[in-house]
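Notes from the 1:1 (GR / supervisor)

We went over the backlog. Supervisor wanted to see one worked example end to end before approving the batch request, so GR pasted a single chain during the call. The sequence is below; no edits were made to it. Supervisor asked that the structure be written out right there so they could see what the output format looks like.
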Amino acid sequence: MSTAAPPANRWTERVEKLTDPRTVAILGIACGVVAFWLALPPWTTRGVAWPMAAGFVALACGVAAVPRGEKKLGYYAIALGILGTIGAIWLQTKDQETLDSVLTAGVIASTLRFATPLAFAAIGGIFSERSGVVNIGLEGMMLTGAFFGIWGAIWSGTWVVGLLMAMLFGGLLALVHAVFSIHLRADQIVSGFAVNFLALGLTGYLYTSIYPDGIRAGVSTVPNIHLDFLDSIPVVGDFLERVFGNLNLLVWVMFGVVILAYVVLFKTAIGLRIRSVGEHPKAADTVGISVYGVRYAAVVTSGVLAALGGAFLSIGFVGSFAENMTSGRGYIALAAVIFGSWRPGWAFAACLLFGFGFALAIPLQREADVSENLISTLPYVLTLVALVGLIGRSIPPAAVGRPYVKQ
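Structure output shown during the call:
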């Protein structure tokens, strides 16, 4: 006997899903973003009709979702509808040339480049902290990857070996942190800071010892991937080609790492083991999961990924090395982990936000004639604002920061 639902019932179910309060609220959030986006390049709509229409839809969706129980996303939709519309109206007062010079395709491409090292480190931090080990040492692991990446590229003559050396030494530094945090049960935050200072001193000493006259030009660097076919896409082809047509290979690898991290953590048995030892290590141990083994693997993985982010800075972006060249990016990546609630997708979104702060600083300094020193604080201010807004709201894994003692 067939149990298939009649076509009418299936259509009813689909309509109910589309009118679900959460779906309506998400639609409202999207419309609020679109309201503001319409006034930005490449669209640069000169007129308030379309932005106001999108903002009104966002507001209506929010108002419809809140009374039906979806208060959080509903209020977000209302806020974005209002702010998006106001922002679009404010942008009408600015010259199109000014908007095009500040918010160019180049700025968006730069956002992706600046977000790449942050995303590598943030994904690494998620693996470590999901397993129950706080990794403040992301900064040091990035710096280690930056130095040994360019050292390996110079020594071997190829950027491939540079990446392998960065991953190797980043993983070894993470292993040091893992030993102190897991087996010696040292304070994980203190251990992380010690790793950062160790990396800062070690890379500085090796750099001045091996390269007293600096690093000469001509280092083998990670190539860019050219996607010339994007230019043939109607209407937005030129814009897409300028944004995505000449990105570094590691930027594309970063996209893959974000997707892979989500799949591994939430769709595989390995991810279930990682999350179980970070939430209930005793229960995980009871069913035969090696808490120590999983935590060691997760922390070393975090070091390898953070080192990839550092290697991007030296042999993917700059083509050189400078002492303390990470400049606190490891700490920003840690903030992205918290901002993203220990989930790869949201952490990547936070990295894009912070990367946009780095990318926007250059055209703002040029167009607004603001002090370069003041503008350079923008990404760090965004980090502080993001974290302040999450005080008491972002819930970490239950056992993070707590050493496990096997019974």
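Supervisor's comment: The longest strand covers residues 224-226.
Batch request approved.
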